[in-house]
Amino acid sequence: MIRLLTIAAAAVLLPSNAWAELCPGNPHALGTERTLTVDARTMPRIGHKEFAGSLPLRDKELVLTFDDGPWPGTTPKVLDALKHECVKAAFFLIGRSAAEYPALARREVAEGHTVGHHTHSHALLNRLPIAAAEAQIDRGIEEDELALYGRRSREPSTPFFRFPGFASTPALLDQLRSRNIVVFGADVWASDWNPMTPDQELQLILARIERVNHGIVLFHDTKAQTARMLPAFLRALKKGGYHIVQAVPSAPRIAVSQKR
Ligand SMILES: [Zn+2]
Question: Is the peptide bond before 70 cis (omega within 30 degrees of 0)?
Answer without folding.
Answer: yes
